[in-house]
Amino acid sequence: MTPVVLLPGMLCDARLWGPVMGAFAGRAVLHAPLTEADSMDGLAAAVLALAPPRFALAGLSMGGIVAMAVLAAAPERVERLALLDTNPLAEAEAVAARRGGQIARALDGGLAAVMREELKPNYLAPGPGQGAILDLCMAMALALGPLVFARQSAALRDRPDRRAVLAAFAGPALVLMGEHDRLCPLDRHALMHRLMPGSRLAVIGDAGHVPPLERPAATEAALAAWLSG
Fold first, then answer.
1. What is the pTM of this model?
2. Quick one: which of 143, 189, 151 has its CA closest to 41?
3. Which domains are delineated in the chain?
């Protein structure tokens, strides 16, 4: 079976995918770290250096943006593509303008505060049960630390538009989002779905920006269908 390469979101690690690993049963899985480069091309090169010759590729949020950079660099190696809660467009000017202050604050010892005040409030769908998920997101962020935050922030700020890359991809694709995702809303996912003729759009109910953690059963089922379709 085709191996799978999984790309986590910003300041996340393999724990992001833990609740949905049943979708990849029987397959070789590579959890590719996105920690050492400060550009999307650099992160994509690091993924490709570790990845098998041909693979299925799934990324969430920043991981999805890196997945598009991987596809741009080596389209012949990507058999199928899953983009979760992500954005094919270049960084919005208003978001880019905030990056410098966030980076400076994080490097000055304020990473936890940046996560708590500016990022985590936008992660999850409304309702109960958020505490454990937010605690995990914070634990992943603090484990990776402020230098990784700075590199990833720069890569996100300077990223190019990838619409043409997606339009050229003819393989099986999944475009998945949580219905309450405020960071990467429905219009971005509808756009990616339109660009890729072989894609399926899945909207996970009662989920926000991290469906694998919020609604793992529905997310796992969608990923399994993408791999078997």
1. 0.96
2. 151
3. 1-229 (3.40.50.1820)
